[in-house]
Write a structure and sequence with these properties.
Order of helices and strands of chain B: HHHEEHHHHHHHHHH
Structural class of chain B: mainly alpha
Low-confidence stretches of chain B: 1-5, 415-434
Oligomer: heterodimer
Number of domains of chain B: 1
Structural class of chain A: mainly alpha
Helix content of chain B: 55-70%
Number of helices of chain A: 19
Mean pLDDT of chain A: 80
CATH superfamily of the largest domain in chain A: Cytochrome-c3 Hydrogenase, chain B
Helix content of chain A: 40-55%
Order of helices and strands of chain A: HHEEEHHHHHEEHHHHHHHHEEEHHHH
Largest sheet of chain B: 2 strands, antiparallel
Strand content of chain B: under 5%
Low-confidence stretches of chain A: 1-63, 80-87
CATH architecture of the largest domain in chain A: Orthogonal Bundle
Shape of chain A: globular
Chain lengths: ~475, ~425
């Protein structure tokens, strides 16, 4: 991944580039995050990773943040000396999968010295539902129903990325109105997802009221989703060929009301959290990650941007009609939890800007492709046209055939780069679907952010990474 | 009890059956009042915080949901009582009592009513017996309060330690560290009050505060005569002592699940809950007594004098109960080390310094070389100095915060630059791309 530097780059705002100073110079010994489950001596850092000559491994300093210990061994050791090794004063704590602040069913194995987190290891899989495999037994039209359940906090993005991949395989052009409707729903979804992050993140730091406020605003957005799609979550609204239904009457008024409602509420958040000394104290300088680390660990979204790297797929690899709307990409300068919080908060404001432009410029026309092989005919046509009936029957039973090929499409979800790798063997069902879930990839930055922090900081880090476990485990 | 209660006027010449009956009645009344007030406090807290959070709160059980606490208590009472296999059974069972009993015992010190106007001592007399409207006016009252609040921490500490589980253990370690740091600040801020009042008895402290204040308008409350600073310290340290937000790291749901009471269930859990709310009520009452004149206040007739005392006491109490709920609704939780920093680096030095200043003024007054001839004017000067020191302290605190953040950043090889996100104006950072 390279960073595109354009002349109006927001990085100029960050002043001197202060990040990533020591890490580049530090010797490389630990690189790959994740589980070294074969390792049995936990106090050891594990085998030295091979230097493949790419220089990539040199980016990570030896921090020993990752706990290389298998879950089996941890369970077996539970009654004995917990960690042993050079320092048996440490304690192994399993945080989750049932814990108030692990955002679902994330499990963290933490090695604690008192309250200080020495090493940690995220353990996933408690929400595994085999969605990638399921996709192989569903037609391309049924696909969005499946993928929408991955990142349940931002379902439209899952549907979007799958539909875009399918359309790219089909070589299908989507009508402009469908494109703009998709953009509208995605930006609103970004707002609702970030609001959820504000709510749960606030709760994790102890600002209990924020929980309710965040949900309150999100509820208003979801009510609009319900009006458009019939559902609050898991909409199956964006489908290959367009969207499931046109926007309802009065949508413009609803959206504008929403956009008027949110900014004052965001200012309330600023009073409650951003300007609050305790809040700043809890987040600033906590969960710091350097630019080099973030890039090496493939972090995307607010985590990457918090380190000062200006990278947003909406701007850097435009899809839909993002090259026609005006918005800013927000970057931080410290790469700490506060920057990630502030980026999310301000991305809500940016999304409001985008939504206002969409409302202004929403084109008229068809909301789905006119290709009868992909789009089911309108209900009324079925009664009068034999062909329509046949198309309807074929599309909903066999599905439409997609030409052989493979494609990777990525969109900027609220959590980072959400990618869909789709292989078709020419049949009506995908041969293989793989999702690059940003939550999953971002998860491996956690041990490095928690390194040497307190237990309370670990909670702040989880909140600032904002993972959705449905997407991590898929 | 008899040794402690020597200050009671009705004990001055022998104890007879009537005295015993009176004491028993007082204890029972205080116990019932405290239990009922805890029940109402739980309701009050849930209702107020609901309103602050755009919710309705309990409204089903009883009128306005008043009986919700009772319903919850009944439910907890009939739940299965679990004792973890790895726990230290005896200590595990003892700990809830160690929490509840001191919480109740502290309340005996609080004068909840009485007529203190025009130099009266707040006593009432029934059937020729004169007594105070508090369970016992212990001559070493304030020391007793400090002792009880220290013992209360043992309940929390031992509960966590005996649970045989890791989160409670962390909670109990936090509790002991917190207790050590905040007891000191609490005690030192009390010393200023004692210096001004010249007594340890709560009744006499109220009597002193009922006296005429500056120009007869401003009340003679310790809040003012000690120059606000001890009150601020006491409020912060008291909140930490209560383990209430923003200092609730002992139970810190988001970090330690339930902290010290993670492994507790059924009535044992209810007892911790009871103790916590009892402590909140008691601490508010103590604050009112020590700094806000307790039941002292003007007597407007109509009602009997002692009842006016109760009205004033109740109103003042309500303000602090609301304040504690307000804290909880608005403030994020401090981190453990930040709490320690606040206690050791700010509150304790500040309390000590302030005590020294107050003592200096007292000595100067009695030696005849005060700033002015009038204690009241000196008090005013104390106030100004207090505010100035408050400002300095705030600056010190913010610089301490900055330093600790810089330390953290330096460890990661980062240097602090001007913040990118200045959100005050609501203007988003970053520049336009398209």
């Amino acid at each position: 991944m390279t960073v595109t530097e354009d002349s109006a780059s927001p990085e100029q705002q960050t002043g001197d580039d202060t990040t990533g100073v020591d890490s580049a110079a530090a010797p490389s010994e630990i690189a790959a995050a994740g589980a070294g489950s074969t390792e049995t001596v936990p106090a050891d850092f594990g085998p030295e990773p091979e230097d493949d000559g790419s220089g990539q491994l040199h980016l990570l300093p030896r921090r020993g943040a990752v706990l290389r210990m298998s879950e089996v061994q941890a369970a077996a050791d539970i009654d004995g000396p917990l960690i042993g090794g050079e320092n048996d004063q440490t304690m192994l704590v399993n945080m989750g999968p049932v814990h108030p602040s692990t955002h679902g069913v994330l499990r963290l194995m933490l090695e604690l010295d008192g309250e200080t987190v020495l090493r940690s290891k995220p353990i996933i899989g408690y929400l595994h539902t085999g969605m990638e495999k399921t996709a192989e037994s569903l037609t391309f039209l049924q696909g969005p129903t499946n993928v929408t359940r991955m990142d349940y906090a931002s379902p439209f993005f899952n549907e979007l990325v799958f539909s875009m991949a399918t359309e790219q395989l089909l070589g299908l052009e989507v009508p402009p109105r469908a494109v703009w409707i998709r953009m509208l729903m995605c930006e609103l979804n970004r707002i609702s997802s970030h609001l959820l992050s504000m709510a749960t993140g606030g709760m994790d730091i102890g600002a209990v009221s924020m929980m309710i406020y965040g949900w309150r605003e999100r509820e208003v957005v979801l009510r609009f989703f319900q009006k458009v799609t019939g559902l609050r979550m898991n909409h199956n609204y964006i489908r290959p060929g367009g969207v499931a239904a046109d926007l309802p009457d009065g949508w413009r008024r609803d959206v504008l009301d929403l956009m008027d409602l949110l900014p004052p509420r965001l200012e309330e958040y600023d009073i409650l959290m951003t300007g609050q000394p305790i809040w700043r104290d809890r987040l600033q300088g906590v969960g710091v990650i350097s630019q080099a680390e973030a890039v090496a660990l493939s972090a995307t979204g607010p985590i990457l941007r918090s380190t000062g790297i200006s990278w947003d797929l909406r701007r850097d690899m435009p899809y839909l009609a993002y090259d026609e709307v005006d918005f800013d990409v927000l970057v931080g300068s410290y790469g700490d939890a506060f920057d990630r919080y502030a980026i999310r908060l301000n991305e809500i404001r940016e999304s409001i800007r985008i939504v206002r432009q969409i409302v202004e410029r929403m084109p008229s026309g068809d909301y789905r492709s006119a290709d009868t092989k992909v789009t089911p005919p309108p209900r009324a046509r079925i009664d009068e046209s034999m062909e329509a009936l046949i198309h309807h029957f074929k599309i909903f039973t066999e599905g439409f055939k997609v030409p052989e090929g493979e494609v990777y499409v990525a969109v900027e979800s609220p959590r980072g780069e959400l990618g869909c790798y789709l292989v078709s063997d020419g049949g009506p069902k995908p041969y293989r679907m793989h999702i690059r879930g940003p939550s999953f990839v971002n998860l491996q930055t956690m041990p490095h952010m928690m390194d040497e922090g307190f237990l309370a900081d670990a909670v702040a880090v989880i909140a600032s990474v904002d993972p959705v476990l449905g997407e991590v485990d898929r | 009890m008899s040794l402690l209660a020597l200050g009671e006027p009705y004990l001055s010449d022998g104890v007879d059956l009537g005295d015993v009956v009176l004491t028993v009645v007082k204890v029972v009344v205080a116990f019932v009042v405290l239990l009922v007030s805890v029940m109402l406090m739980v309701w009050f807290e849930r209702k107020v915080i609901s309103r602050l959070q755009n919710r309705i709160g309990p409204n089903v059980a009883g009128p306005f949901g008043l009986l919700q606490t009772l319903a919850d208590g009944m439910k907890l009472f009939f739940k299965e009582d679990l004792i973890p296999e790895r726990s230290d059974r005896f200590v595990f069972q003892l700990a809830p009592y160690l929490s509840v009993v001191p919480a109740f015992l502290t309340f005996i010190l609080v004068p909840i009513a009485g007529d203190f106007s025009d130099g009266k001592d707040g006593s009432v007399s029934i059937a020729g017996r004169q007594f105070f409207l508090q369970v016992a006016d212990v001559p070493v009252g304030i020391l007793f309060f400090l002792a009880m609040s220290s013992i209360g921490v043992y309940g929390v500490m031992l509960a966590g330690w005996s649970s045989g589980s890791k989160y409670p253990l962390l909670g109990s370690v936090r509790a002991s560290a917190q207790a050590i740091s905040y007891e000191a600040a609490l005690g030192l801020s009390l010393a200023s009050v004692l210096l001004i009042s010249g007594t340890l008895s709560t009744n006499e402290i109220v009597q002193v505060q009922a006296g005429e204040g500056f120009r007869g308008i401003i009340p003679n409350w310790n809040l003012i005569t000690t120059g606000f600073v001890p009150f601020g310290i006491f409020l912060i340290a008291g909140t930490a002592e209560l383990n209430r937000p923003p200092f609730d790291m002992v139970e810190a749901e988001q970090e330690l699940v339930g902290g010290f009471h993670t492994e507790y269930s059924s009535i044992r859990f209810a007892m911790f809950y009871l103790a916590e709310f009892m402590n909140t009520v008691t601490m508010s009452a103590i604050i009112v007594t020590l700094f806000f004149g307790g039941p002292a206040g003007p007597n407007f007739g109509v009602l009997p004098g002692w009842l006016w005392g109760f009205v004033w006491f109740f109103l003042k109490l309500l303000v602090f109960l609301f304040t504690f709920v307000w804290f909880r609704a608005t403030l994020p939780r401090l981190r453990y080390d930040q709490l320690m920093d606040l206690g050791w680096k700010l509150l304790i030095p500040l309390a000590l310094g302030w005590l020294m200043i107050l003592a200096g003024i007292r000595v100067a007054q009695s030696g005849g070389f005060g700033i002015t001839d009038s204690t009241q004017v000196d008090t005013g000067i104390v106030l100004v100095v207090g505010l100035a020191i408050g400002v300095v302290a705030a600056l010190l605190l913010s610089s301490a915060v900055r330093t600790s953040r810089q330390d953290r950043l330096h460890r990661h090889g980062l240097v602090e630059v001007a913040p990118v996100f200045e959100l005050d104006g609501g203007a988003p950072a970053g520049e336009g791309h398209h």
